[in-house]
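quick one, 141 residues, struct below
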Amino acid sequence: MRWFGNFVKWFLYITTGILIVCGINYKLAGIEMITVNIFWMILFSGFVTTLATVLLLPKEKDGRIKSYIKFALHYIALCVIMIPLGVWFDWIKFNLTGIVTMMIDVGGVCLSSMFVYYIIDCKQADEINRMLKKKYGDSEQ
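---
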């Protein structure tokens, strides 16, 4: 059940990140009208990249070096997934500029997702600590 909860959480973070990056890219490109298909493309790419994220992100028990390697492999896997999807969805052209653009976009989605994850995780930890102090008092005196 924990795996499913992590999947849903990361799906929301990643899909929102993809939505934001798509919105920025379309705005910068001067595209004012989009089709309904864009929503299905965003949901599908969010689903596929969430699978990779849940499988490849470091676990708490992983050491520092292993975590860095897993982060790098995770980013590479997301690029390998999103470049063909970007070409298929006509988000990028399959040339050096398109590939670099998608790699930057993937990095933007990763950073925004990790930032949101960190903020929400800190808020949850603060809430847990506050509830523990309320229940057991401040025993660090």
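The mean pLDDT is 88.
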